[in-house]
């Protein structure tokens, strides 16, 4: 089977396995660990491994010692930079036997197994002997030592990846048949949206892993093809940096100014500008697709259409009766949806007396010169985060390392501390929903929209999984029908 992907994460996820993962609906599912147990304090997890799971290219069983070695590798800053945060609050890892391994945490963490499935996490289990062998470890960049459903056999970096079925893969279907079904799979990386779609329509590829909204209708209207859309955990936003100084003042440090922006936004119009490729949710990073998304009205306090009179009133009370002049808003057109959303946002703000120009920069410039800095206000984006508390932890709590808005709210921090150390699901749910509502009402982010994902495939491709995020690719039970063309 041939497909097209643009995600290096997905390549890794096809080669390797985690202890736990998520399905297409972001629900937590077992992977290398067939189950796990925790104590009443939820600061200790014991994972029970699937017996018979094997690392493909070296034909050896996945054991608890491999998990322990992987965790210790991730905690070793001199070998794997910044991976320790992916491990989370792990104090120690103890092997109970070949198939049981215990994680002792520094504090309670009710969502710890979900952290193992997080986007960007390096929590893919490696063989202990590979980690300890300097030569083998140095070959990680071009040798597949994983236990995933497919084994990488050939590749041209950033261009093409050829996988063959892992004969010793530990998963079977409901009837006990060995997975994966396909013997071989080729991924072609193509960043040009038009040529990517052309390759699918004319039959050179069987499936597209990700499809832009602009080409969605073309696949949908092609005989013999299926196009699918669904919401994702990704979102785009405007950062109101509370430390930004302009004309001797810090306008975004004033809650009434931040609320004025939210009242001035017409998110329905912004959604239309994005060709309906976004979902209106809260002014908070948690997406409607996350299982613990708070169920309060997305229009709470601010509505989903503009309330210009209320915006002007708040600006006047904040000390700007004649409007607010601001420096340029910086953005990068990484996504074709971004420029029209930014232009409409500018027009909406101008209507209530918030005046500024917009400046487009490259993604590299945006990251190096503007993102997470204090001198400007700017557009930003977050890719698909699987574990829904991650963005709160990294970028919303007052001491978060990526707190781009320099937001500090005692009520939010109290809710965060409560849910992040909860020992019961009810306590976690209540505090997490409270944190979402507090940030929606007081936060320094204006969420333009949570973006949708699109994909397409020929109808002879069956069971093709729709990944919940760009970092996932589910191909253990794909198959082609007998009428599929030879390639």
Description:
The protein is α+β, with helices and mostly antiparallel strands and 487 residues long. It has two domains: 2-228 and 454-480, Periplasmic binding protein-like II (D-Maltodextrin-Binding Protein, domain 2, 3-Layer(aba) Sandwich); 232-451, Dipeptide-binding Protein, Domain 3 (Dipeptide-binding Protein, domain 3, Roll). It is built from 16 helices and 23 strands. Strands 1, 10, 11, 12, 13, 14, 15, 17, 19, 20 and 21 form an eleven-stranded mixed sheet that branches. A four-stranded antiparallel sheet has the order 4-5-9-8, covered by helices on one side. Strands 2-3 form a two-stranded antiparallel ribbon. Helix 10 packs antiparallel against helix 12 (338-350). The chain starts with a strand and ends in a 7-residue tail after the last strand.
Record keyword descriptors for this entry.
487 residues, alpha+beta, D-Maltodextrin-Binding Protein, domain 2, Dipeptide-binding Protein, domain 3, 2 domains, 11-stranded mixed beta sheet, 4-stranded antiparallel beta sheet, 28% helix, 23% strand
**Relative helix content:** 25-40%
Counted beta strands: 23
Distance between the termini: 8 Å
CATH topology name of the largest domain, in short, is: D-Maltodextrin-Binding Protein, domain 2
Quickly count the domains: 2
Which value, in Å, is the CA radius of gyration? Answer: 24 Å
Structural class: alpha+beta
Low-confidence stretches: none
Taken as a percent bin, the fraction of beta residues is 15-25%
Secondary structure tally, helices:
16
Mean pLDDT: 91
CATH class of the largest domain: Alpha Beta
Question: Per CATH, which architecture of the largest domain?
Answer: 3-Layer(aba) Sandwich
As an assembly, this protein is single chain
Biggest sheet descriptor: 11 strands, mixed
Please state the overall shape, judged from the principal axes of the Cα atoms: globular
CATH homologous group name of the largest domain = Periplasmic binding protein-like II
């Amino acid at each position: 089977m041939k497909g097209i992907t643009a995600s290096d994460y997905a390549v890794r996820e096809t080669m390797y396995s985690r202890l736990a993962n998520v399905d297409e609906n972001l629900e937590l599912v077992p992977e290398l660990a067939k189950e796990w147990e925790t104590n009443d304090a939820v600061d200790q997890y014991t994972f029970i491994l699937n017996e018979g799971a094997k690392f493909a290219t070296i034909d050896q069983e996945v054991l608890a010692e491999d998990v322990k070695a992987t965790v210790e590798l991730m905690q070793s800053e001199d070998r794997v930079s910044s991976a320790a945060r992916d491990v989370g609050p792990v104090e120690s890892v103890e092997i109970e036997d070949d198939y049981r391994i215990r994680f002792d945490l520094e504090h309670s963490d009710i969502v710890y197994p979900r952290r193992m499935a997080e986007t960007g996490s390096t929590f893919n289990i490696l063989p202990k002997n590979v980690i300890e062998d300097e030569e083998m470890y140095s070959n990680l960049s071009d040798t597949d030592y994983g236990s995933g459903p497919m084994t990488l056999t050939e590749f041209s970096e950033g261009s093409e990846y050829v996988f063959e079925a892992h004969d010793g893969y530990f998963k079977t279907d409901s009837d006990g048949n060995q997975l994966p079904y396909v013997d071989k799979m080729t991924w072609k990386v193509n960043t040009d949206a038009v040529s990517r779609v052309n390759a699918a329509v004319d039959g050179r590829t069987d499936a597209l892993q990700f499809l832009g909204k602009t080409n969605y209708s073309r696949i949908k209207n092609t005989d013999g093809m299926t196009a699918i859309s669904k919401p994702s955990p990704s979102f785009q936003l405007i950062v109101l940096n509370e430390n930004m100084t302009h004309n001797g003042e810090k306008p975004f440090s004033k809650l009434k100014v931040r609320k004025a922006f939210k009242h001035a936004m017409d998110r329905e119009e912004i959604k239309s500008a994005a060709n309906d490729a976004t979902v209106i949710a809260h002014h908070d990073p948690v997406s409607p697709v996350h299982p613990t998304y708070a169920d309060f009205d997305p229009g709470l306090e601010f509505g989903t259409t503009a309330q210009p009179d209320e915006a002007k009133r708040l600006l006047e009370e904040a000390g700007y009766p004649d409007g607010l002049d601001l420096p340029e808003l910086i953005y990068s057109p990484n996504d074709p949806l971004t420029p029209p959303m930014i232009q409409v946002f500018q027009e909406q703000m101008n209507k209530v007396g918030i005046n500024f120009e917009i400046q487009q920069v490259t993604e590299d410039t945006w990251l190096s010169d503007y993102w997470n800095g204090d001198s400007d206000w700017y557009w930003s984006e977050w890719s698909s985060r699987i574990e829904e508390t991650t963005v709160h932890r990294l970028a919303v709590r007052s001491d978060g390392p990526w707190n781009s808005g320099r937001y500090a709210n005692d009520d939010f921090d109290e809710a965060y501390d409560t849910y992040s150390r909860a020992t019961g699901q009810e306590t976690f749910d209540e505090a997490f929903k409270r944190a979402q509502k507090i940030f929606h009402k007081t936060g320094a982010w204006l969420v333009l929209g949570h973006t949708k994902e699109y994909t397409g495939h020929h109808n002879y491709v069956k069971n093709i999984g729709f990944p919940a995020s760009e970092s996932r690719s589910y191909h253990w039970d794909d198959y082609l029908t007998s009428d599929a063309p030879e390639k």
